[in-house]
Amino acid sequence: xxxxxxxxxxxxxxxxxxxxxxxxxxxxxxxxxxxxxxxxxxxxxxxxxxxxxxxxxxxxxxxxxxxxxxxxxxxxxxxxxxxxxxxxxxxxxxxxxxxxxxxxxxxxxxxxxxxxxxxxxxxxxxxxxxxxxxxxxxxxxxxxxxxxxxxxxxxxxxxxxxxxxxxxxxxxxxxxxxxxxxxxxxxxxxxxxxxxxxxxxxxxxxxxxxxxxxxxxxxxxxxxxxxxxxxxxxxxxxxxxxxxxxxxxxxxxxxxxxxxxxxxxxxxxxxxxxxx
Length: 276
Description:
Layout: H1 3-23, H2 40-62, H3 70-75, H4 77-91, H5 96-114, E1 125-126, E2 133-134, H6 135-157, H7 168-174, E3 193-199, E4 205-212, E5 215-219, H8 221-224, E6 229-233, H9 235-242, H10 248-252, E7 257-261, H11 263-271
Parallel strand pairs: 3-6
Antiparallel strand pairs: 1-2, 3-4, 4-5, 6-7
Helix pairs in contact: 1-5, 1-6, 2-5, 2-6, 6-7, 7-9
């Protein structure tokens, strides 16, 4: 995806998210979000922390440091995670305006960092808990996080909410690089094969996925050969199934997840996304 085009989608999505959050009554922040175990306020806290982490990651990556933040580097990831948890607990005592001010500060710093990606040294990487990643991947991760958790909040208030229309196509394009995180069927011999996912919408996307030998990989369509399964879906359905937000049955009944080919593999594949 073009880095600048993604920046535009992020800006529009952030503006819509902030507008919605500012309009919510303070008591609504205590209601559950759709993300299991999180209130709406906790989802906002998570986004503020992710923005801080990714902004720092890009800034250090642009300077040639793809390693973990200082606390994680000196004391380890457990200490770093403990510090983040302590900050989360403190934030839960803060008012919605205070949380949104924190979010605004964190995203402003992240935006400034993302502005420099295009001029960064080719091959520069930033840090994420899954490991060093290209700076463009870090930017995509922010769009992925914001689009998904924005939905977690909105769908808790409106059961018919979708991933925001203006972000759907770009959000869908972040998914292939993140499929393996919640996929639990890589070692299942019954699922070994090739899966073609055709995501319909304003900007159609075709993803070819191979499963087998303990791995789930996105490959060139030609390299994948004839697929065992072909899935026709849309950005929201694809995203919510592979992040384990919604069961595939919800979309099958509405004609939003239609699979052809090996029926057993198709069913097992859709149900193998068990966490994120």
